[in-house]
Design goal:
Blueprint: H1 3-33, H2 36-58, H3 76-95, H4 97-118, H5 130-147, H6 156-162
Keywords: Membrane, Transmembrane, Transmembrane helix
Protein name: DMT family transporter
GO cellular component, one term: plasma membrane
Length: about 160
């Protein structure tokens, strides 16, 4: 594997490390301003402003001139992102960051294998063999061990006592 690939994998891991923090920040925001949907809206609003500032500074041209000829599904990314952020914001304080992120990762692995197998939105399908399925099952085993549903979650009183 090239050094460039290692750098990109490290960057992907770093971004992944930011997701639980984003979920916790949004969950806390939701408790302050009216719930997870409001928090998700504010999160996307701030993100949109930040990206807009970047586009202005970078003098990036926005090429949506042919928007009318694009298929409707092409715009689904924003909707999918909004649903993701809203649901993670809702679940984070209820299940905890480790459980939510492990379940999200497992869902991503399963979906990615299905998308690979059927070649969705790419030129050619990729093989989903026993080794890749075993990898997904190992992720599931990790989810179960991290989520540990047989353990009782600490109560709010117990958490406050430790402080």
């Amino acid at each position: 594997m090239s050094g460039n690939a290692w750098w990109m994998m490290g960057l992907a891991a770093l971004i992944g490390m930011m997701l639980p923090l984003q979920g916790l920040v949004n969950a806390r925001l939701g408790t302050q301003i009216g719930g997870p949907i409001v928090a998700a809206f504010v999160s996307f609003l701030i993100g949109t402003l930040a990206l807009g500032i970047y586009l202005v500074i970078a003098r990036q041209r926005i090429g949506i001139g042919d928007a009318a000829t694009m298929p409707m599904w092409i715009w689904a990314g924003g909707l999918l992102g909004a649903v993701y952020v809203a649901i993670v914001t809702l679940l984070m304080p209820r299940l905890g960051p480790a459980t939510v992120m492990c379940l999200v990762i497992f869902g991503q692995v399963v979906a990615a294998l299905l998308l690979d197998k059927f070649g969705v939105l790419q030129s050619a399908p990729r093989t989903v063999d026993a080794v890749r399925i075993a990898g997904a099952l190992l992720v599931l085993a990790g989810v179960i061990l991290v989520a540990a549903p047989w353990r009782s979650a600490p109560t709010q009183a117990a958490v406050l006592q430790k402080r």
